[in-house]
Amino acid sequence: MRVLVVEDERKTASFVRKALQAEGFAVDVCHNGDDALAAARATPFDGIVLDIMLPGRDGLGVLRQLRERKNATPILLLSARGEVNERIEGLNAGADDYLPKPFELAELVARVRALTRRSGENKSTLLRVADLTLDTVTHRAQRGEAGIELTAREYRLLEFLMRSPGRLCGRMMILEKVWDYDFDPGTNLVDVYIRRLREKIDANFESKLLHTVRGAGYLLKAQP
């Protein structure tokens, strides 16, 4: 499960990120509303932890924008202000849950787990691009009638690409989403795994799905 944490207090964001990662979540972090909207458009998150008090566009504004764009990702609102009217406003705007600050990290993790579990129950577990399928529960990949064996990292890479078919993904984006790196290690790590994945899903098939855009990145799409 991938979660977006939107919190301008960097120490709080770091604590939340580490707590969620310790429970097996992949976590992205933004510190303002505009970056949060951009991230939510670019990545299909399973849940969003959204602070109301943000610089620039506040959390309620982000929430309303997401719901107006038909983004149904479950959202847990955070706020240092615990007024009933604010909670009601947030829930009426489309939030799924509300947690006042200060909070216990264990409670936040439990609420995020509950939100993402409900989200997963309503989401198809089978991803498909052309004749390539990936079951996100069993982690089984298949191209046509042929099964494909994947390592854990190859699975994460393929899942990331299949959740946004046709979208160009740069090396840094892949490092962030698949390896949880917020820096470029200066190696050909991504290229090596792309090559391995291409050998497994494309080598024995006439129609190629994994494409390289020189100098820009990679994308997964069916050929017209």
Task: Write a structural description.
With 224 residues, the chain is of the alpha/beta class. The chain has 2 domains: 2-121, 3-Layer(aba) Sandwich (Rossmann fold), CATH 3.40.50; 126-220, Winged helix-like DNA-binding domain superfamily/Winged helix DNA-binding domain (Arc Repressor Mutant, subunit A, Orthogonal Bundle). 41% of the residues lie in helices and 21% in strands. The protein is built from 8 helices and 11 strands. It has helices spanning 10-22, 33-42, 59-68, 84-92, 105-121, 152-162, 171-178, 189-201; strands spanning 2-6, 26-30, 47-51, 75-79, 97-100, 126-129, 132-135, 141-143, 146-148, 210-213, 217-220. The strands form 3 sheets. A 5-stranded parallel beta sheet has the order 2-1-3-4-5, with helices on both faces. Helix 1 (10-22) packs across helix 5. The radius of gyration is 19 Å and the shape is elongated. The model has no long low-confidence stretch (mean pLDDT 88).
List keywords for this structure.
Arc Repressor Mutant, subunit A; single chain; Rossmann fold; alpha/beta; 41% helix; elongated; 224 residues
Sheet with the most strands, sense and barrel status: 5 strands, parallel
Structure classification: alpha/beta
What's the arrangement of strands in the largest beta sheet? Answer: 2-1-3-4-5
Shape type: elongated
Radius of gyration: 19 Å
CATH level-1 class of the largest domain: Alpha Beta
Give the number of helices.
8
What level of helicity do the residues show?
Answer: 40-55%
Task: List strands and helices in order, with pairings.
Blueprint: E1 2-6, H1 10-22, E2 26-30, H2 33-42, E3 47-51, H3 59-68, E4 75-79, H4 84-92, E5 97-100, H5 105-121, E6 126-129, E7 132-135, E8 141-143, E9 146-148, H6 152-162, H7 171-178, H8 189-201, E10 210-213, E11 217-220
Parallel strand pairs: 1-2, 1-3, 3-4, 4-5
Antiparallel strand pairs: 6-7, 7-8, 8-9, 10-11
Helix pairs in contact: 1-5, 2-3, 6-8
